[in-house]
Amino acid sequence: MTSRVALVTGGTGGIGTAIVKELARKGHRVATNYRNEAKAKAWQEQMHGEGFDILIVHGDVSSAEDAAHMVQEVEARLGPIEILVNNAGITRDGTFHRMKPEQWMDVINTNLNSCFNVTRPVIEGMRERKWGRIIQISSINGLKGQYGQANYAAAKAGMHGFTISLARENARNGITVNTISPGYIATDMVMAVPEEVRAKIVADIPTGRLGAPEEIAYGVGFLADDRAGWITGSNLDINGGHHMGW
Question: Do residues 13 and 205 make contact, with C-beta atoms less than 8 angstroms apart?
């Protein structure tokens, strides 16, 4: 397999860390962004201890200017970005009739607008080189909705609209663009949910368990592979059968 440069946004989180490791194991040179330097450096040291050499660069993906500088730094230090995983995401939950404008905008900016902010400075190089892999990490709740998550569901659904348009525009340039929609994954955020609530979630999942971050990462590795060149504009549901579509 060809070693390529991969940028994973939000790579220090639960799913992000698994994606970073998966791509590094496949021989790619991997970078991720951070906003909290102390936390990011501690994470980087942990990765070093596990045998992974991951570049960390400062960058707020909700800012177009910050994202552009982040991309420039990654490419200056590692080379042209050929694999991009738009994984950064936050939640600011609340029922819509009580939702404040900042709750809406924070989620839209970080989860959806970040796809434009990070992809825009990367896409030109991919088009020139006639090769690229762009993968959005969406969510099951972008497909089926969720109580108290109008902002999050809207952003995650919008990510796939971005995917299918970008896929059409760039298919002849050797660039694939796809979405992965994880179900409920056993990350710190989900495991912090009260046990009785988690039990109700698991009871509704046909496989009878939460997913593992590594199972999402496997999907990213599959779509980023050289041999996945005829898969574009697709959404890969990885949710244990929790939500099934045609």
Answer: no
Local confidence band at 190 (pLDDT 50, 70, 90 cut-offs): confident
At 193-206, the pLDDT tens digits run 889 989 999 999 99
The pair of three-digit structure tokens given for residue 211, joined into one six-digit string: 């997913």
Q: Which listed residue (34, 152, 184, 218) is catalytic? A: 152
- Is residue 23 in some structural domain? yes
- CA 148, 237, 202 angle in degrees (round to 5)? 60
The residue to which tokens 């994973």 are assigned? 8
| Edge-first strand listing for the sheet containing 5-8 | 55-58, 29-34, 5-8, 81-86, 132-137, 175-182, 235-238
Active site residue 152: yes
Nearest-CA neighbor of 138 among 166, 171, 161, 106? 161
> CATH number of the domain that 14 lies in?
3.40.50.720
Q: What is the pTM of this model?
A: 0.96
Tally of structural domains, the chain:
1
Domain-embedded: residue 189: yes
Q: Which structural domain range is residue 37 located in?
A: 5-234
Binned at pLDDT 50, 70 and 90, residue 189 comes out as confident
